[in-house]
Amino acid sequence: LELFVNDCPKTCENFRRFCTGEHIRNEQPVGYLHSTFHRVMRDFMIQGGDFLHFDGTGKTCIYNNNAPTFADENFLHSHHQAGMLSMANSGPNTNGCQFFITCNKAPWLDGKHVVFGKVLDAESMLTVRKCEAVPVSSS
Fold first, then answer.
1. Rounded Cα gap, residues 46 and 97, in angstroms
2. Could you give the dihedral angle defined by the CA atoms of residues 69, 16, 38 and 72, in that order, rounded to the nearest 10 degrees?
3. What is the structure's pLDDT at 53?
């Protein structure tokens, strides 16, 4: 993954620290280790990052003295192709730990979800495609 650190430094740092386990809460590292992609929608996106409840309801971030969310940083980048890394949210300024990777272009998400990175190469995109292809229930 390439993170757009120059354009979205706060969003990228939140993601990076959850990736590395550098964020400490209650004297324990917290982050994406052992979390899953809990939402997979073929031809749209794969969503993960809920290491609290593993079902899309968990929210936390590294900012705001343990507040669960932080504000939208900007909307400089678009969902113009497969492989864009973006923050999942439940409305404006509700970014936490959840993210998604697009499996197709999704312009209707522009201006609503902060795009802060992208999948870099064909081999990595193949991994995304393999996740996308896993059979899931319709619920």
1. 14
2. 30
3. 93
Active site residues: 39, 44, 47, 89, 100, 109, 113
* 9 contacts 76 by C-beta, under 8 angstroms: no
Closest among 103, 133, 106 to 119, alpha carbons compared: 103
Whether residue 31 contacts residue 51, with contact meaning beta carbons closer than 8 Å, is answered with: yes
Q: Are 68 and 52 in contact (CB under 8 A)?
A: no
Q: Report the residue count for the chain.
A: 139
- For the ranges 60-69, 79-88, 124-133, which has the lowest average pLDDT? 60-69
Rg for the chain, CA atoms, rounded = 14
In this structure, the strands spanning 28-29 and 37-41 are unpaired
Give the pair of three-digit tokens for residue 6: 């120059």
Checking if the pLDDT of 85 tops 70, the result is yes
Long-range own/partner contacts, residues 25-34 (CB < 8 A, 24 or more apart)? 25/60, 25/66, 30/60, 32/97
Q: From 100, 18, 92, select the one nearest 61 (Cα to Cα).
A: 18
Strands 37-41 and 84-87: unpaired
